[in-house]
Design goal:
19 strands, seven-stranded antiparallel beta sheet, eight-stranded antiparallel beta sheet, alpha+beta, 463 residues, disordered N terminus
Length: 463
Amino acid sequence: MTTPQDELLPATRRQLLHRIAVAQAEGRTPSLVAAVVRGGRTVWHGARTSVDGHGPDENVQYRIGSITKTFTAVLVLRLRDEGLLDLGDPLEKHLPGTGAGEATVAELLAHSGGLAAESPAPWWERTPGSLRPELADVLGKRPLLHPVGRRHHYSNPGYTLLGALVEELRGASWEDVLRREVLEPLGLERTAARPSAPHAGGWAVHPWADVMLPEPAEDLGRMAPAGQLWSTTGDLARFAAFLTTGDDRVLCADTVREMRAPAAAVEAADVADGAAYGLGLQIQHRDGRLLVGHSGSLPGFLANLTIAVEDDVAAVVLTNCTSGPLLGGVGADLVRIVAEAEPRIPEPWRPLPHADASVLELAGQWYWGTHAFALRLISDGGVSLEPLSGQGRRSRFRANGDGTWTGLEGYYAGELLEAVRRPDGSVSHLDLGSFVFTRQPYDAGSPVPGGVDPEGWRGIGQP
């Protein structure tokens, strides 16, 4: 992926460089490399290093830890899209005998399957995967710590189970399936389960002295689907573009949009922090914008991928220290700098290529009781319905091809919208999941539930 450094304004590039320079210096990390993506391609790349004359470029590999989970989630959703499983299927249906089979595929993807956060000792990130050759070794004697589906509890063993599920249904290793179905189609040539030169070494930096200790780089074995991968800013930039728009060779746009939607119950503290979890993606509301992506860490490495879909800006940040800069904040700042300094230019307004007269007559103002709403035509035959006050329930609706529409978001997601017509063909009202929307508030000529007082509207002095 080429990096046209003149794509961003000089002042913006300086702000980006300043942000990673502060992160590298204050975080006391041997090196830090970052990239910004806009419009599906890298528009800025920067690096800071403690080694003179040796700044890492977009092809240097770093270990990306739990960003691996997003890749594993993509493989699972490919199985769903092919009809080989349903997200509501219990794991037991496809991978029997684990002892955690009550959890559904969706619950494992969203870390709400009730599983423990870690595998039994010794610490799996600093010991060979050969110590845990079977799923039973990963799960331990007590795999479930919480009731299934009741709370979000981050689980590395849960993604080990999802990797095993991929292997079971594909009849090949997780690594081979990943390479064939995701890495090769997306052109991620520098993403792999094992490093190849040039790659960074992992280091621990002493908390109270400017000295370092090399960290081991273990093969995680069974735990690989939870955190094994090595990658580069160049490859993760391509992956960020894929997670924004989809790619029909891997997952369509609707499925990656599904990944980005909250899928797990959140704790009270998560609500306060504006954090949630989708299907293999972390979600956060920060600086007034919705961010999706994933963080990662393994001994010697930290990684972060942050995407602001509405701004069409993404950031990748990689570093080679066990603890140091808070990369989630760095990634969010890189996105914010570009989004605020050089806001996205909207596409030109264009009229619809075709407007069905029977749909066009529905456009305009409608009332649910006394609440005023506006119905608008949007692309692909769909419509939107939103309160005129700007506050309240709103949704886009997908055309079903039979004169009805299905809600795509919020309170009305999955609900059916239909224009109910009188015998003469004129529109009586809109029916939305049993709610009656009328052209006038409590229109006496429409079947308003409970009826309308025959005396009609009145002032305070009228009986």
